Structures are given as C-alpha cells and as structure tokens.
Description:
binds 5'-O-[(S)-butoxy(hydroxy)phosphoryl]adenosine
Amino acid sequence: xxxxxxxxxxxxxxIAVHWKEEDYFKPVPEFTAQANVRxxxxxxxFDIKNFPDCYKEYAxxxxxxxxxxxxxxxxxxxxxxxxxxxxxxxCYNCVDRHLPKYKNKTALHFVPEPEDEPIQHxxxxxxxxxxxxxxxxxxxxCGLKAGDTVTLHMPMIxxxxxxxxxxxxxxxxxxxxxxxxxxxxxxxxxxxxxxxVLITADAYxxxxxxxxxxxxADIAYDExxxxxxxxxxxxxxxxxxxxxxxxxxxxxxxxxxxxxIIKNYYHRTVEPExxxxxxxxxxxxxxxxxxxxxxxxxxxGGYLAYVTGTSKYIQDLKPEDVYWCxxxxxxxxxxxxIVYGPLALAASTVIYEGVPTYPDAAxxxxxxxxxxxxxxxxxxxxxxxxxxxxxxxxxxxxxxxKHMTTVGEPIEPEVWRWYYxxxxxxxxxIVDTWWQTETGGFLCSxxxxxxxxxxxxxxxxxxxxxxxxxxxxxxxxxxxxxKAGNICIRNPWPGRMLTIxxxxxxxxxxxxxRYNKDPKSKNWEDWPYFAGDGAxxxxxxxxxxxxxxxxxxxxxxxxxxxxxxxxxxxxxxxIGEAAVVPVADPIKGKxxxxxxxxxxxxxxxxxxxxxxxxALANEIGPIAKPGKVWIxxxxxxxxxxxxxxxxxxxxxxxxxxxxxxxxANPQVVEEIQKMS
Length: 676
Ligand code: WT7
C-alpha cells in the first residue's frame, strides 16, 4: 500500500484515543460559596429549547441605548445577526457606566518588565480621561470615524487598551497585530484591513532588553506601500513619555509622537457613538493552515455580551477581583479576557509587559503577591515553562488564587496537577477553556463553582453551546463511544465572528462547508460550525480536545494525537517540555520524533532517552515508539511561547527551516540542527 493511499483510507473517526479518564477534583466549598454560579439551573435556562432567547441573559449584563427588536436573525445562515436593532457602545460599557460606583477603583494595573520600575495603577476615572483624550485625537487629528479601520501594532503597555477603547468609543474598527510579529506581517494586515493609520510604540521590554519597535513601523510602511496601501499617519507612543527610545528617525509629516500631540486634546470629552449591535468592533487576524491570514471580524453587541457573560460565569469575575490574564492583548485571549470581558464587569485587570520567567521563574508569584491577584489565567505553555524551571517556587510566595484558567492547547494531566497543587495550592478552581479566535469566547469549560474538574479535559459545553462530534461521514459519535472525531457546534452563539473580513466565501468554506448538506438551507440546524479540532466526548459529557486535526500523526495507518505522546513523555520526571513531530518513513509512512527539554539540574544521557521511549510505549503502545528522541537545550518558541513544531519538523525531516525571525530564540535552531 503506498503512503498516500494509506493516509486516505484511515478516517478521522479512527484516531486512536489512549488517554485514560482521570479522577475528578471538586471545587473547594470556600470558592463555591462565593461563586457567581452556584447551581445548575443555569443549564435549564440555557437549554436548547430556550435557544436563542437564553442569550437575553448575557445582553442584560450590558447597558443599551436602544433595546434590540430580535435576539437572533438567522434568516441567512451561516451569517447571523444578534440583538438586531439594538444600539450600544462597547467603550461606554467598559468605562463610563462604572464611574458612578467605581470611579476610584483600579481598572488597570500595569506591571513593567523591569522589576525596578514601579507597578502603575489606573482608576476607572483616569482610564475615562485618557480614553476620551485619545478618542478626540483619533477623530480630530486623524479624521477617523465609525466604520473606518485602524491597525495597531502595540506592545503590552497600558496605552493598548486605551487605544482599543477609544476606537470602540468612536466605532472605529481596531485591528491589533501582536507586537512580536514582524513589520512585514504587520503590513500584510494593514493591507488586508485597508488601514490608513498605524498606531505603534517606540520600544518595549522583552527578556531584559528594551527592544526597538518603531523600526518595524518603517518596514510596515514600505511593505504596505508596495502592496498598494499607503499608511498616512503613524502614531507612536513613547515607552518613557518625553523620551524617544528608538533609533530610527521620525519621518516628517508621517510620524507623530502621541505623547506630544495628545496635549492638544487634554480635557476633551467625546460622546460615545450609539452603534448597531451587529456593527464591527474589531478584526483579529489568525493564520489558517493555508493561505493568507484571515481577519476574524467581531461584532459589537454579540461579542461584548458573550465575553461579559462568560467572564462572569466561567471566569467568576466580580468588581472586587484582581484578575491577571498572563497572555498578550495581541491575541484573542487578551481582547476577550484581559480587556473587554473584565472591564465590562468593572474588575481590575493586570497587564504585564514582558516574559513570565523574567528575571526568574518566580516573577509571576511576586506580582501575584504584590497585587493580591486572586484570579489567574494563562496557557499550558507558560505553565510548563514555570513548572520546568521553578517547580517549588509558588509555595515560597504569599499569594492565594481562588480561581485559575488554562487556555490555548490541551494541558497534560501531569502539568494540570502541578498547576492545581503548587500554583493553586489545592484551593483554586481550575477551568480549562476551549475556544478559538473565531469564536470570540469560551465554548467548552467547566463552571468553576458547580462542576468537578477533570485534568486534561476541557469539560462540558458552555451554557447555550451545543457541540457535536462527527466522524468523517458526518455521523454523530455518541458520548462515551471512545472514538474521536471532528468537534462542531450545532447552533449559532453571540460571540462568533460575523465573517472573515472581506471574504464571506472563505468564511463559509472554511467553517461550514464540511458538514453542511444543503447549501441553500435557511435553517441554522443545517449549518454546524466546524472548529477543525479533534475531540472525544467522555461518558460524563466532558470534552477532551486532542488538538488541531492536522496534528494527527499517521503511523502505519494508526492515527496518534501528538498531544497524547507529549503527555506520556512528561511523565518522565526529568522532562520539562516535549514536542512530537511526524517524520517521513519509507516503511511506516510517518514515525513520531520527540523533542524534549530537561528540567534544570539534569544532564542529557542515554538513560533519559530510553525512559522517554519506554513511557510512550507503555502509555500508548509500541506503535508510538519514537523514531528518535532529541534531547534539546530548549524548544524553538514564538514570542507568545508556543513551541514551533513546524521548525522541529523541518529539522527532523532535513528540510529548510524557513523564516525563523519571529522566534523568541532563533539561535536554538542552529544548536538543534547540529544534533542531527
Ligand atoms: C486553537 C485555537 C482560544 C484562545 C487561544 C488560542 C486550541 C484552545 C484549548 C484548550 C485544547 C485548545 C485548539 C483551537 N485550543 N484552547 N483549552 N484545550 N486545545 O486561540 O490561536 O485561535 O487557537 O487552540 O486547537 O482550535 P487560537
């Protein structure tokens, strides 16, 4: 059987599932007693028979200028309009409406990366003043109005949420590009969004260095121009107001230092625009498996209602909480769960400029102690890094989390247990939240006060979300079947993106074509949302996400999820991180190669290699035996900390590693190449 054929003949439904069901952990009574959701009546209210009216509950958490006429217009699937006819303003909901009660309460805590710089605290009143000044500048200096787009390429500084909220106040559509991305990547997004204004910063701290960021704006300008989009104005925030910290000179008539021109807008206030609920709040570009990055276009009313509702019920946020989502605002996680959700609920939200492990792996715990953070949110990647370098550090600091979140990838049960025992000190409820850039907010998660937690499992669907797992042919796999398939969402929900910016056709093709049987159908029930993730539903209705469908390795016709292999490797005590990639093999089609990095204090040796091989063989089966165990000094990582499996795969397959300039640690690539 040739290789290609064998791959085609094996269907998704045959993805082998080797994970064992883990034991439950119960939320502690202290948490449950104070939780926003204390009983499971919520699932009666959000029962499918109450769909879509159940989503009134989330809209009621917001202030509206004009109430909506209809909850959902689904007459043209899969294009849906939520809260049709309603008018609101996202900035008003995140700032103005809190002033009567909370004006003197902290809205933002900004933690600079250098530890000798003090943490800055900004009240809701101060935030209100700054947002108004900047909105006046956007309107009167840049001439921007509702419906225009603007691209932001800003680092993690407090001015980022200020700019986003100022845009929202005017109805200007913001498109924030992750600051770690290159000038070229920024340009591609400027071109696609047709932005005439770029907002950036001169510099920011990352891993102890003040990085010149303005130089990327110059590249973005040139590259965008080549593609036919002229950036008319570049607005530059200074990391140290009054002191320009970049090397590149300013271009007369194009580049403007915000900290200077903002002075012309001091004391100005701008009335929030009364905007339609189905208007656009922002674009968030995400890369697809193929083709150019796509701009997920998110709505004002549906999005804000959904992130507010899920922040309240799943993040358990209250105004008195100090909440730290240690992610970058340049990702959807930061938009939904650093800025919009928390601020809509008047919580205090923490913005950390730099690297979690800078200057050492106890930094997060010192910040948590100093600010009395009680809700903490981060990714498995960050948790693994902190566990690897400083497994015993959390207990040395006097902080107490009531609640913790993990997001972004499946978390290995072993790592989950460290998070629970060491970081959560066996008191915090953990939610493992599964969702995507496109979905606006959480899709699967336990509700922290009422559900038991299960390590490695995202848990049941969020209120009002009705998932289904289909096999290749479109047959639903019943819960407890033990089989994995493609997870889809049966129904529309308010947080979902409106469309892909400028490409309705791709939107339909990518997310709906897979399981739609009748493209002419006007019934939403015929349009399941295809997430692109493999998943399995346990007998208790908890979903375990196996990762992107393309992360499946086909070894001799046997499909293995990369995550379960990595999880098995992490059971070896010396191992800090693990990444599996498929390598072409003349006999088996593909064999897994596993890259591992060690916890500090351990030296690479043949014994460890053997332990890893045995762990995979024992946990999963001899079929999972890696073709090679690479003990590497460190994993190649993106600036957001995701392991670049693409680079590892190129090395293992002896191919060109491609562009590695966006890596946080490009030098490690060469070191690994030398090992082959
Ligand atoms: C993909 C979406 C959602 C914000 C961050 C990532 C994976 C996300 C989980 C989780 C297992 C997860 C999926 C998804 N993913 N959360 N809790 N467990 N996998 O946003 O860049 O749009 O990535 O991340 O594969 O499709 P994104």
